[in-house]
Write a structure and sequence with these properties.
heterodimer, A: about 210 residues, mainly alpha, Arc Repressor Mutant, subunit A, 2 domains, 11 helices, B: about 700 residues, three-stranded antiparallel beta sheet, 32 helices, globular
């Protein structure tokens, strides 16, 4: 899973963005520029390990701000490019994730500005507020994930199946609705109900085990 | 409706990209209004994000190994859960009879579980989800279980393949003999086996010393034969074989067993099954004849052909897929401009994960760029599949257009490439895949050997030298670099002799260790928590679905003393098929949603076979003249040897006796005995111990 995301295949939709990043940062070499490739050594092993291990956390700091997995992935890609490119600026021993999240945050805003014409992207002021909120809440990811796992196992079978279908790679709500022969709206409602159940369940579990974090 | 509810509904629709502009504005203004709302909103989206990231993958306990074992464990430690599970099952299946039996079994299991579980305080959790399942799939083929590996069983399988060789050799430009390394069996030129094994032991022991780890105790013969049998043949051992092995006085009995098991037809079948799954997946696809591929692989492994030859024949395959089994591998992966063929070939045979480099360069490994991907792809891209004129078979040929092939780089430019691998470019009127096979034999030996060594090692030990096992490269350093090199070189020196490789591993000290951990081990050697594996104990791991199926079969067979031929290959693959989901991604990947919960597995067996087989087996045991005594211990021994390949514990004996006593209050002594025996058998089959390789 992790691997797939780390070096997730940039779709052609991504290309423009990547291209632009490349232009802005000519020192980043790709095979396209083989002939001018400077001899830099590339990130060291420790960096790569931390980098790889942090992918999910970075992704999850992006997704709530953009909601669409495809957009979040694109921003993650861009973030990764920056991180890899600036790896030497990272000081060992400092908090990698904090640094990565700062970069990611920046990329979110850039993405917003670049896609100013798109509807259904949050306005910058809202983004700003949410970003602050993330910092304040400092959500404990691993605990959440653990809690979510348990909550999922407590769902009714049919609910769990629906969630499973919805989040299978490449799936979407309307496609599932079509496959099930149900109106999209009703599927969305079911999904919403299950998500709220999960949200509530996760919250409770975190409160229950809340003395730890 | 409160603002919170409203916001969550809007957020939900936002996740589905189904908000109207008005609703979207409303959502934003709610977010602006209140910090509490923002907090809830974020947590809601976090849940969404977690689900997205894992691709729905940790959802079913089934697809996540970690949950897998948790489920198996909790099933045994938490009676409520068992009851809940079975209650669910009964709703679905309306088979109260069986459920009752299983409930009984469950209760007994819980009583027993304590014993086994304390034996190894944690059956280890594993990370890696489907990846790991992929890593340790063990797949035997039942036909030959009847003949139990005396070589006879394979004859009908071999002959069609041999005939095919004769037919096509004159037609194809590159007959199989010319493709693979011609040496089929062990060549005399190499190193001595004992030296290799002792070197492995030394290097593994060095890792223990460096980490100050005390290895686990040596496994007893019961544990060892069961584990080896599961690894090699994909099924637990039969009671008779266990008794014979344990009773043997020979000091070299382990070596003898390792040698004879690697020769068994069941082992060739098992390897063929594993590789069929790896090469074309578990699900049936149109235009892919899995059975024919499996026949090809079975013959290759049974004759112990060099792995290099097998790999090259798969890569250079041509012809009809019902006759040339090896063609089915590429027939399954020529879609999407043959990008799956490229990625799967690199992954399985070279241990390179390249699928992402079709779009961009590898972030850490310089030599894996987009250019390299498409140059490798060019070997496959010109291959063509077409239906055979007279039948439903398909034909794989290389007669596509020659010349450059094209891809689009990240700047949107069309780039032309020629097939190129390991610095060698292929052009002109040649058979491209045959050329690739040649280059691999000349320059790719080390990579092909490394990938296979890592995979076979993981098959034996539960973890490879790298995680994932098929992602080798400077970005993913192995846990034991020197050992990995040593084994790779030895494997090459042994002409890619898979059987020999397996014998080396079977004879290592590390494979002979118990899965019970000692105190000092518990903190450091925990690969399931992401530490590097030190192989200081046997890592318990769940059985794959094929292993469960065949082990159930073997257990029943041991008890009943006769073979039940109703369980056949077709049945098993249908059964396994229930757990498989195709992803349709660029590696034609699929996931296996199998949670190794035997209770569930039994329910999904589609019934009649098992529903009848177990009571019938129990009847058979009771009917045996020498066992029809009132002594319950003797009967319990039969059961535990059959199901768990070991002797019953004292605790189990007392549980069994109590069960008989309790039942005798309400029924005749003979019925009580039968019921208790049946319950006990179910209990054993439902135990975590049964469903793990340990």
């Amino acid at each position: 899973m992790l691997r797939d995301r780390t070096i997730a295949c940039g779709s052609s939709r991504n290309r423009q963005a990547v291209e632009r990043v490349l232009e802005e940062r000519p020192q980043l070499s790709t095979t396209d520029e083989n002939q001018t490739k400077p001899e830099d050594t590339g990130p060291d092993e420790g960096f790569i390990r931390t980098f790889t291990a942090s992918q999910r956390a970075i992704y999850l700091s992006i997704l709530p701000l953009v909601h669409s997995p495809a957009d979040a992935e694109e921003i993650l890609q861009e973030t990764n490019i920056v991180l890899l490119n600036k790896w030497q600026q990272f000081e060992k021993g400092t908090n990698f994730l904090a640094w990565a999240r700062t970069v990611a945050r920046f990329e979110v805003f850039r993405f917003r500005r670049r896609n100013f014409h798109r509807i259904q992207l949050l306005d910058e002021d809202v983004l700003q507020l949410l970003a602050q909120q993330i910092d304040e809440d400092s959500l404990e990811l691993e605990l959440q994930r653990e809690a979510l796992r348990e909550c999922l196992s407590r769902l009714r079978d049919e609910d769990r199946e629906l969630i499973q279908k919805r989040y299978a790679p490449g799936a979407s709500g309307d496609r599932i609705a079509a496959a099930l022969g149900r109106p999209a709206n009703s599927v969305y409602q079911s999904l919403g109900r299950i998500r709220r159940v999960l949200l509530e369940c996760v919250r409770r579990r975190l409160v229950a085990g809340g003395s730890t974090p | 409706m409160t603002a919170r509810q409203e916001l969550l509904e809007l957020a939900n629709l936002w996740c589905e990209q189904d908000l109207t502009p008005v609703q979207f504005d409303r959502m934003q203004s709610l977010l602006r209004s209140d910090a509490e709302l923002r907090s809830v909103f974020l947590r809601f989206l976090q849940v969404h994000g977690l689900l997205v990231w894992d691709g729905g993958n940790h959802l079913s306990p089934s697809s996540d190994q970690e949950d897998l074992q948790q489920a198996a464990l909790s099933c045994c430690s938490d009676p409520d859960l068992i009851l809940a599970d079975f209650a669910g099952a009964s709703r679905r299946q309306k088979r109260s009879q069986r459920v009752r039996a299983m409930l009984m079994a469950g209760v007994v299991v819980c009583a027993l579980a304590a014993g086994w579980l304390t034996r190894d305080a944690a059956i280890v959790n594993r990370d890696g989800g489907s990846q790991t399942v992929q890593a340790i799939p063990v797949t035997p083929v039942p036909e030959t279980l009847q003949d139990h590996g005396d070589g006879e069983a394979l004859k009908p399988l071999q002959s069609p393949v041999q005939i095919v060789h004769q037919q096509t050799a004159p037609e194809t430009p590159a007959p199989p003999e010319a493709i693979g390394t011609p040496i089929a069996s062990v060549s005399p030129r190499i190193v001595d086996d004992a030296a290799i094994v002792s070197r492995i032991d030394k290097l593994i022991a060095r890792g223990w010393a460096e980490n100050q780890v005390q290895p686990a105790e040596r496994a007893d013969d019961y544990e060892w034969i069961r584990r080896l049998s599961l690894v090699l043949t994909g099924s637990i051992s039969s009671s008779e074989d266990v008794a014979e092995f344990v009773g043997s006085k020979s000091p070299s009995r382990r070596q003898l067993l390792a040698e004879s098991l690697t020769l068994e037809a069941a082992t060739a079948d098992n390897l063929a099954g594993i590789w069929t799954n790896l090469l074309v997946g578990r699900s049936e696809k149109q235009g892919v004849d899995r059975e024919s591929l499996r026949r090809f692989l079975t013959a290759q492994f049974a004759e112990n052909k060099s792995w290099m030859e097998t790999a090259c024949r798969l890569i250079a395959a041509e012809g009809r897929n019902d006759e040339q089994g090896e063609t089915n591998f590429l027939l399954a992966h020529l879609n999407a401009q043959a990008t799956p063929a490229t990625a799967v070939t690199a992954k399985l045979f070279l241990g390179h994960q390249v699928h992402c480099t079709q779009c961009h360069n590898h972030p850490f490994v310089r030599e894996r760029g987009q250019q390299e991907f498409w140059a490798l792809n060019a070997f496959f891209k010109t291959s063509v599949r077409k239906p055979a004129p007279d039948s439903r078979a398909w034909i794989l040929t290389q007669d596509g257009e020659a010349g450059m092939t094209f891809y689009e780089n990240r700047r949107g430019q069309q780039i032309a490439v020629l097939p190129e691998f390991a610095g060698e470019t292929v052009d002109g009127d040649v058979s491209r895949r045959t050329e690739l096979a040649r280059i691999l034999q000349e320059k790719g030996q080390s990579e092909i050997a490394r990938a296979m060594v890592n995979r076979i090692w993981a098959m034996f030990f539960g973890y490879g030298f790298t995680n994932p096992i098929d992602d080798l490269g400077p970005h993913n350093p192995p846990s034991h670099p020197e050992l990995f090199d040593h084994l790779t070189e030895s494997f090459i020196a042994a002409d890619f002799d898979v059987r020999r490789l397996m014998r080396w591993l079977a004879m290592t000290e590390a494979f002979g260790l118990s899965s019970i951990r000692t105190e000092s081990v518990s903190d450091i050697d925990q690969p399931e928590r992401g530490t590097l594996p030190l192989f200081s104990r046997a890592y318990p791991r769940p059985l794959g679905p094929e292993q469960v199926y065949d082990s159930l079969h073997a257990a029943i067979h041991s008890v009943a003393g006769s073979s039940d031929s109703r369980m056949i290959w077709q049945h098993r693959s249908t059964w396994v098929g229930q757990f498989v989901r195709s992803w349709g991604n660029d590696e034609n990947e699929e996931t296996l949603a199998f949670d190794c919960n035997v209770a569930q597995a039994l329910l999904m067996m589609n019934g009649k076979d098992l529903e009848q087989a177990i009571p019938a087996a129990v009847e058979a045991i009771l009917a045996m003249p020498d066992r029809n005594s009132a002594n319950p211990d003797r009967r319990l021994l039969d059961l535990s040897m059959a199901a768990l390949n070991r002797q019953p514990t004292e605790n189990e004996q007392s549980v069994f006796r109590t069960r008989i006593r309790t039942l005798s209050k309400t029924m005749t002594a003979r019925d009580a005995l039968r019921s208790a025996t049946e319950d006990m058998f179910w209990a054993y089959l439902n135990s975590a111990e049964f469903s793990s390789v340990h």
